[in-house]
Design brief:
Blueprint (H helix, E strand, L loop, with lengths): L6 H12 L1 H16 L2 E2 L7 H5 L7 E5 L24 H14 L10 H4 L3 E5 L4 E2 L11 H15 L4 E5 H7 L9 E5 L4 H4 L9 H11 L8
Parallel strand pairs: 2-3, 2-5, 5-6
Antiparallel strand pairs: 1-4
Length: 221
């Protein structure tokens, strides 16, 4: 796997790419893409980093796996390619945005627009085999994305981490709470949302209020 990542992240993560676990991960991903249909496309594996350079990061949203259906995954967590039906979790995210900020429901599930404003849309696992959820878990991606979160926590200040659901909360356990703003809630999936653990968290207005308090541009959600 050729690591084609934004230069700003390349500097931050260069030591990670040299580690044995990443070499093994790279070999695994190469073999998977050569022998199976995998997502996202090879040039979009590091899209979260390409659309949101290290110096621009203001908000981090942590997801779990890329979508494993045809044409869905584009390298950004919760995001789908243009023209693809909006998945259930993203529908609930958009419903919360609509209610929280009193703005129209977005008509595109492609979240590149967020990433370009400084929202790092980070899945814990960056690749997946078609129709096989979780198929690339425990191969090294989690170690890599833990390192990404650690670097952001250590090297930056006043980042807003949005941790939705138990998985994301565990993933963000080492974030320095004295330097950063951490907002938690249930996951936006229908199962969690329908139990009252998602709607009404107001994370989007809270994020913008925090950014405004630090004299930073708010996110146009």
């Amino acid at each position: 796997m050729k690591v084609n990542i934004h230069p700003s992240w390349g500097k931050v993560l260069e030591n990670e790419f040299e580690k044995s676990y990443f070499q093994e991960l790279s070999s695994f991903v190469k073999a998977e893409y050569a022998t199976h249909k995998c997502y996202p496309k090879g040039d979009a594996i590091f899209a979260a980093f390409d659309y949101c350079p290290f110096d621009d990061v203001k908000v981090v949203i942590i997801g779990q796996d890329p979508y494993h259906g045809a044409g869905q995954a584009n390298g950004l967590c919760f995001s789908v390619n243009e023209g693809i039906a909006i998945p259930p979790s993203l529908i609930n995210i958009f419903k919360e945005i609509e209610k929280d900020l009193l703005i129209p429901y977005p008509n595109s599930g492609n979240l590149e627009r967020w990433a370009k404003q400084g929202v790092l849309l980070l899945n814990a696992t960056l690749t997946v085999r078609e129709s096989e959820a979780g198929s690339h878990q425990n191969k090294g991606w989690e170690t890599f994305t833990d390192a990404v979160i650690q670097h952001v926590s250590d090297q930056k200040e006043n980042i807003i981490f949005l941790l939705w659901g138990g998985f994301a909360k565990k993933k963000g356990a080492k974030i320095d709470q004295n330097k950063h703003c951490i907002l938690t809630s249930g996951h936006p999936s229908p199962l969690s949302a329908n139990r009252g653990l998602w709607f009404g968290n107001k994370h989007f207005s809270q994020t913008n209020a925090f950014l405004k308090s630090k004299d930073q541009n708010e996110i146009n959600w």
